[in-house]
Amino acid sequence: MQWISKKPILSDIHPRVDANTYGKDLKFGFDNDTVFENGDLAIVSGAENFLQTVKTHLMVSNLEYDWGLKEYLPTTTDDQEEFDFNCEELANYLVSDPKIGNTINSLTRLSFDGEVYEVELTADGIDGLATIKFHF
Question: For residue 124, which of 4, 11, 1 has the smallest C-alpha distance?
């Protein structure tokens, strides 16, 4: 299923933070497993780290951490109206989140095929649309 916002869900958090100013962190793969490159732990920084941070927020339960948003991910694949409602609710949570909403400009699309989520957003410091993919 796919939700495309009729008008992008926008963040109004200020001051804004450029995605390229995000520091360094360990790199996590598609399933949120630690990634190794040439036998060493891989590192992400800047905009790549920001996008990984958004993905982590989406994959972590708010029962585990108060900033997790996993419970808000739409899980239906047969009711478009419910899916749209859940996506819009999730988009509003993302753009108002104090840890990442100051960098996200807008959420424009979310899709789910029963296994993989794909989130499309715009952010300060990232040219064009950024896409985040992860397993449910």
Answer: 11
CA–CA distance, 103 with 136 (Å, rounded to integer): 24
> Please, are residues 60 and 70 in contact by the beta-carbon 8 Å criterion?
yes
Give the helix/strand (H/E) hosting 88: helix 80-96
How far is it between the farthest Cα atoms of the chain?
47
88-118 pLDDT, tens digit per residue, is 999 999 999 998 999 999 999 999 999 999 9
Q: What is the pTM of this model?
A: 0.90
Number of H helices, E strands in the chain: 2, 8
Task: Report the number of distinct structural domains present in the chain.
Answer: 1
Those residues of the chain that have pLDDT short of 70 are: none
Task: Write out the residue range of the structural domain in which residue 84 sits.
Answer: 2-135
* Cα–Cα dist 19/63, whole Å: 27
